[in-house]
Specification:
heterodimer; A: two-stranded antiparallel sheet; 2 strands; about 80% helix; globular; B: four-stranded antiparallel β-sheet; 9 helices; binds magnesium ion
């Protein structure tokens, strides 16, 4: 049981890192950005390519994340930004196209076989009489640290406040004369960086395969919906909550664990709709 | 200072404004009246570039502003205040003002002083989430926000809609105070208020401009206005 809880927390941490960028893009620009999955998957493959050269997990992570930034910028600048304000489905189709293209690119360069990445530290800790890998604890701590850092960013910096304001009323921000797109680009890149970090630190636990971008962007979508679209604190709780759902379902029916996430998402949507009507 | 000339505006294929013209001089308050769906909001949004027009032209201080983006127009002094009374509800009142001061490059202290001068009740509300304000306070906050950095033209969409009559007085007082300092086009259904402040009144009906009154005397006669609604 405790093992499952720890497992749930680990997945929750990853889900949070991966979802935050997706949630911000959705909340501010009303754009469902499937290309977020591209960033996630590509950064893991880049990481695998860089790691043998530098032989240092953290350094390879930093390098891969830095390499992914220009790609993230290009996606934002040339695919997402031209579609700001257009009907939701344009961006959906366009970013889905990017996800397809990068998935094929990955298959072409690296092949379709899953790739294993070894865990950087095999140390285990004793928590409540259970062996708990230090590496997973680090993941959880990273996610919580990111949560607090983002909170500071959104509460204390002008850029953060512009985003919070735009989540409420993006027209209002424009009518003050603030060029919100500059700030959107900034948080878009922050979101991509977090997804890359999430993808990379999760990769030793699972394995890398070309379709992982699809899987995770759908999970990020669920986290965003359950967290209350545009509610960034909600995304944190929802990520850990859904992480628990995955872990607990995995105890009983491992095959259905990820599907459960979408069952919960559907249930949340229905309940919320009931509430809206009453 | 502002001149809208023979403008047509469409939502997809549906035409919302037909051949609309409008004129505003420096310091004037123009009011726009008309039933629901007449196109008042559409016209304000077109002026501030939130919507684009098909034909015709819009010039401000003798410059064509049709192609300029909303953000840029706001920086040049044209600010739109939407009908929905949406403040940045996740931010405090002070932070709402801070963003306005940041955008207008005015210091925050100066901004807060100005806000308190206009509406002293904000003093105890500065650190409250703006979402907690009453409807009237939200509208006043929106207007104050738009006033930071000396704008030239305010486009205010139904500032008193849905407000209790005591609060309408506050908004009225604020508008009266602004009169002469800034030009404005104000959509307003409250004809009593219109008759007391208007230099011009434009009446829209189903996307057409059906009547323009451009002398203050006539604007002050409410029956005149009622006839066209
Ligand atoms: N986003 C939109 N898409 C399509 N049609 C729209 C849209 N917004 C408004 N319209 C239509 O354009 C016409 C003018 O609407 P507008 O909102 O400008 O009216 P209004 O005079 O401001 O009305 P109200 O008093 O209700 O605010 C209406 O027929 C409306 O249905
Ligand atoms: Mg309207």
């Amino acid at each position: 049981m405790i093992e499952s809880i720890m497992f749930g927390l680990t997945i929750g941490a990853i889900l949070y890192l991966v979802s935050i960028g997706f949630a911000i893009t959705f909340g501010t620009m009303r754009i469902i950005n499937f290309a977020h999955g591209s960033i996630y998957a590509l950064s893991v493959y880049l990481f695998m390519m860089v790691l043998p050269y530098v032989q240092n997990f953290v350094l390879a992570l930093v390098i891969s994340v830095v390499l992914i930034i220009p790609l993230s910028y290009l996606i934002e600048r040339y695919i997402i930004r031209p579609l700001y304000g257009d009907a939701v489905h344009y961006a959906l189709v366009a970013t889905y196209g990017v996800l397809f293209a990068t998935t094929d690119l990955i298959k072409w360069i690296w092949g379709t076989n899953p790739k294993l990445i070894s865990v950087p530290t095999k140390v285990t800790l004793q928590i409540f009489d259970v062996d708990f890998p230090l590496y997973r604890l680090i993941i959880i701590i990273v996610a919580i640290a990111v949560f607090f850092a983002l909170n500071l960013f959104f509460r204390k910096t002008i850029a953060g406040k512009v985003i919070v304001a735009a989540l409420d009323d993006s027209t209002g921000v424009r009518c003050l004369g603030i060029d919100q797109y500059r700030y959107f680009s900034l948080v878009f890149i922050i979101g991509s960086v977090l997804a890359a970090v999430g993808g990379i630190i999760y990769s030793p636990i699972v394995s890398a395969e070309p379709y992982m971008g699809f899987k995770f962007v759908l999970l990020a979508f669920a986290v965003t919906i359950v967290g209350g679209m545009g509610n960034l604190t909600g995304a944190f709780y929802s990520a850990f909550g859904l992480g628990m759902v995955i872990a607990m379902t995995a105890r009983v029916w491992p095959r259905l664990s990820e599907m459960m996430v979408f069952v919960v998402m559907a249930a949340v949507l229905l309940i919320r709709k009931e509430k809206d009507f009453s | 200072m502002l001149s809208v000339d023979s403008v047509d505006v469409f939502y997809g294929h549906a035409q919302a404004l037909h051949n609309i013209s409008l004129e505003l001089k420096q310091g004037e308050f123009a009011f726009m009246v008309g039933r629901n769906g007449a196109g008042k909001t559409t016209l304000l949004k077109t002026i501030c570039s939130l919507l684009s027009c098909k034909n015709g032209s819009i010039t401000f201080e003798n410059k064509d502003i049709q192609k300029l983006r909303t953000e840029l127009l706001a920086q040049q002094g044209i600010r739109y205040i939407a009908q929905d009374k949406k403040v940045f509800s996740g931010l405090t009142v002070k932070e709402n003002l801070q963003l306005a001061s940041f955008a207008a490059k005015v210091s925050l202290t100066e901004t807060i002083d100005m806000a308190l001068e206009i509406y002293p009740e904000f003093k105890d509300l500065l650190n409250q989430k703006a979402g907690m304000l009453s409807g009237g306070q939200k509208e006043i906050l929106l207007i104050v926000r738009a006033l930071i950095g000396k704008p030239k033209l305010l486009l205010i969409d139904e500032p008193t809609e849905g407000l209790a009559s005591i609060v309408i007085k506050d908004v009225f007082r604020l508008l009266k105070m602004m009169k002469g300092e800034v030009s404005a086009i104000i959509v307003e259904q409250n004809l009593k208020l219109v008759s007391q402040l208007a230099d011009r009144v434009y009446t829209l009906r189903e996307g057409h401009m059906v009547k323009e009154i451009s002398n203050t005397k006539e604007c002050a006669i409410m029956e005149e206005l009622e006839a066209y609604l």
